[in-house]
Amino acid sequence: MTTKVKNEVYRVLNSNRNIITACFGNKVIRCISKTPELSPVVNDLILVNIDTTPISIKSILPRKNIFFRKELKTKIISVNLDHIFLIISGEPKFTPNLLLSVLLRALDQNIPISLVLNKKDLIKEFETAKKILLSLFPCYLKASSNDLHLFNQIFSSKLLENSNTSNEGLIEIKKKIQEIHEQKKSDKAICFIGQSGSGKSSLIKKIIPDADPRIGEISNTRKKGKHTTTTSYAYSLKKFEKGFSKLWIIDTPGIENFGISDLSLNAIQRLFPDFSEIVTTYGPCKFSDCKHDHEPGCTIKRLSKAYSKSSLDKSSKLLCRLELWRELTRTLMN
Prior knowledge:
The protein has about 325 residues and is of the alpha/beta class. It is about 30% helix and about 20% strand. A 6-stranded mixed sheet has the order 10-9-8-11-13-12, sandwiched between helices. A 5-stranded antiparallel sheet has the order 3-2-1-4-5, with no helix packed on it.
């Protein structure tokens, strides 16, 4: 009589070329990927041939979502995510295009996202970053520089402020992590992403003191972060473990670009509800597939010119939104 062996599902902690580090419970193994079809990424769930030498991957379980960049090639950052923390700061200065691209990918993959505006101790740079965030608001909304709660309504995301120097904001971030973990009685995976030098790895070190993310400095000449985290890695946050339920924090390499060339125009429109209201109020564009760029008879362009004669504030905000729209839509066409 043969004994039926139960398959153990391993979680991928790190994938470095064809060498995979994975765990099941407290057991950590290293295995190899022999074919491109069996090349898992961080947070994949896999079945392995434990009796082979070296241990080999038998299969990759279906993924519930894939968080990736799409440029000339597809670069998968992580999979099976329950939440994303996007870390931005005033130094290095983040770009609205990068921020919106990450938001769009998260929306497309149905992954909730929180924004962390980091380095609050750098007062001048922090306030500049806040102003850039306000420029992302739809132009029909009124918001002051202190009313960042509107960001939650507009982008369906949570905005948190933090300083890695004073730890101001760390309690709120930990509360949010705990809230995510308590949503269901199952393992949770949270991905931290941001530009190099934004303080992402330093923040993870504050949350998980025994983690070992590489922490870099800002280049004095270019005011950009130096790449220190070279591959994604999943850390278990033992403080929040409850029974068999674990919480995984995933550190990722810094990003400078985030391609979304595979997305549709409809996907981008989700972040521009003000354009839909403008067209409803002032009439449609001449062409139904108007890209609000070089096409004649564009309602958005017409209104931006009208605002320039009556309201400088509305004009500058609408022009800023229009430029963001064009940058994102041109990405789709490349």
